[in-house]
Amino acid sequence: MKPTRTILRFLLGGLFLMSTTAWVFTSTEKTSNSLLKPAPKVQRYLYVVTPGVRNYLGYGGHGIQVFDIDNNHRFVKFIPTKGFQKNGKPSNVKGVDVSLATNCLYISTLEALQCLDLTTEKVLWEKEYEGGVDRISISPDGKTIYMPSLEKEFWTVVDAKTGDVMTKIVTNSGSHNTIYGPDGNFVYLAGLKSTMLNVADAKTHTITKKVGPFGADIRPFTINGSQTLVYVNINGLLGFEVGNLVSGQFLHRVVVEGFNIGEVKRHGCPSHGIGMTPDEKEIWLCDGANNRVHIFDNTVMPPVQKTSILVRDMPGWITFSVDGKYAYPSTGDVIDVKTRKIVTSLEDPNYNWVQSEKMVEIHFSGGKAVAAGDQFGIGQLKKAPKKA
Predict the structure, then answer these.
(1) Is the omega angle on the peptide bond into residue 182 within 30 degrees of 0, that is, cis?
(2) d(CA 250, CA 241)
(3) Any signal peptide, and if so, which residues (predicted)?
(4) How far apart are CA 286 and CA 311, in angstroms?
(5) Residues 298/385, Cβ–Cβ less than 8 Å
(6) Is 132 left (phi over 0), alpha (psi -120 to 50) or beta?
(7) In a 10 Å sphere around its CB, with 0-12 CB exposed, 13-18 middle and 19+ buried, how is residue 34 labelled?
(8) Which pairs with CB-CB distance under 8 Å and at least 24 residues apart come from 24-31?
(9) How far apart are CA 380 and CA 388, in angstroms?
(10) Which domains does the chain have, with CATH numbers?
(11) Which residue, 132, 129, 146, 134, is CA-closest to 205?
């Protein structure tokens, strides 16, 4: 009987081993197949909102022109929007921003704020606010919007999901441009009627600091990623000034050399538009009179003028692609940052120029927004420089 039992045990052990091996193989095969399944491709688009140069419909009509960054910035589609005045004419677009938390694009016009779902491309809501609306900025977590009234006394703080007013911040500075700090702790508020930059605590929604005074009233500005330095355009200056966001002190005045101030078509100031490359090595500055973008070395302080690029029209704003490869002045020129060459220009399907001071890069995966750039040309280095 012992040999028989031995044989039976051997056969049963073999069956168990085979079944176990088969399970392991099947399980491994499934795992391998799931690992081999490609992840959804990330699509990089540039959303250009118009009319983004005053109310000029000749620069792209009324709506959103979408361009494929990875396909030589070719036109992809047009998305209609709201934003009409009471007489039925399209209103000036004042700002644009993205919330990944709500998967929405927000567009501010003279009178209202509209919220557009980035997947369905439908406007979910549009609300008018007391005092009108200027250039908005959204918190890094995508939940809160700081919304300046239209050059009036206050900023309105709004819930990004509903558009409901949370509170107001009174500065009496002619509220205008706004930048939410990358760390989410502070918001920088520049007014057209003040030489001081107000700094708001994002938790208490109160002014906790002022930076300046600068040489004249503040126009567009940008900040570095560590939130230690601010670079501001001011009235009457072809150039920019630098301030310390930590101490609140004015630091430097930088004047463009070799060019006259001259007359400008819009905005009333020589330099309206300033941005920092994501690596923070350069400052790019708009010159409205000479149709130029001037480039400064930002690895030294104060920054030093390096070169200039002629663009096709008056630049009134500038920002950069997330990867830092492209510069986007409001003229619709697409500039290779490394070579300084204009590689293409934004055009609609009928080969008409598209220009706007309100544009933002958005990355999509599986039909949802997964990353976004910013409209202000903010630096992306989080570590503070050794010297300021």
Answers:
(1) no
(2) 8
(3) 1-24
(4) 10
(5) no
(6) left
(7) exposed
(8) none
(9) 17
(10) 43-372 (2.130.10.10)
(11) 146
Of 299, 210, 278, 223, nearest to 249 by C-alpha is: 210
What span, in angstroms and rounded, lies between the C-alpha atoms of 375 and 52?
Answer: 12
Confidence at residue 383, expressed as pLDDT on a 0 to 100 scale: 75
The per-residue pLDDT for 48 is 98
CB 375 within 8 A of CB 49: no
9 is written with which tokens? 């045990």
267 token code pair: 């905005």
3-state DSSP assignment of residue 177: strand
Global confidence as pTM:
0.89
- Residue 200 amino acid letter: A
Q: What is the mean pLDDT of each run of 10 residues along the chain (388 residues)?
A: 44 42 40 57 97 96 98 98 96 98 98 98 98 98 98 98 98 98 98 98 98 98 98 98 98 98 95 98 98 98 98 98 98 98 97 97 97 96 65
